Amino acid sequence: MNVIRKAMAIAAALSLTLSAGACGADESSSASSATTSATGPLTVVASVSQWGSLAEQIGGDDVTVTSILSSSGVDAHGFEPTTSDVARIHKAGILVVNGAGYDSWATKNVSSSTSVVSAAETVGAMDGDNPHLWFSKEARDGMAKEIAETFSRILPSKKKDFEARLKSWQSREKTLETTMTTFKTDHDAPVYGATEAVAYYLMSDLGFTDATPKGYANAVASEGEPSASDLQTFQGLIEKHKIDVLINNTQESSDAGSMLLGTAGRSDVPVVDVSEQIPSDAQDLVSWITSLVSSISDALDSSSGTDSASPDGTSSSSDSASPSDSESSSDSPSASSSTSTTPSNEGQTDPGK
Questions:
Q1: Residue 350, burial from CB neighbour count under 10 angstroms (0-12, 13-18, 19+)
Q2: 189-327: what CATH class?
């Protein structure tokens, strides 16, 4: 009996030792991130402005946030950080990234002492999934909580402030989700097509069905040119009004996209422009998504006759294509133009972009 008791005691002691060692490793990582910020704001670097905006809202005056990629005029998929960008990432106390292959340049340059918050890890997304996670309500909610928890762990003296800002953000997000629910109620099974699957999660949250031809979507996802047959199929859907709205990614221009915009303009199918990064005139992430929902709603209402449509059928809001944008396009190839659930990719037509 004494032998058994001694064995149990040794096992318990070993377990405590291993547990303490593991906790010590975690605390060491967090402590090293917080050391340089102990007497001042936390130093946060975000790979993209979408998540940088969220970090600023949760952190307030207790953080300083730098977003590396913040221009809606840059091709995000081909972005390469500068030497100064790499230096900022390496010196960051906290790095906020998107993941899912969208900003691998950021995680490649992170220091071992930096705490990393990843949207992809938060919702369980992987490379190959649609990476535009900021358009997903699940990802936004999960990231807000994860960012608040990370800030609180590294700067515990400000935990109540971070939690208060989180609640304030959640209130605004809830208002947005209510607006989206109302949209779904008011619009019965709307259908869309997309020049590139930038807004897949947003359109899914709004109850849309994606009618983009799979051949076209797969070609765009692999950064190739769609076949003439796939492009003609897509144009046919637009001309026959088989889609209610065309979503256009303003940061991914192509000859095929320009041809589709021209077809939409001549067919009075509304076009809504969606950038990947937050536009300069948007206040923050929630405000931007709210304005996009409004633009999409206006586009559908105008095409159905609820409101007066513009000459080419486009929405008049700042996030939708203007008549001149659509009419200037032509069919010529030379025309320019954690615990959160994983956002569903079911029916997704562009998993790799």
A1: buried
A2: alpha beta
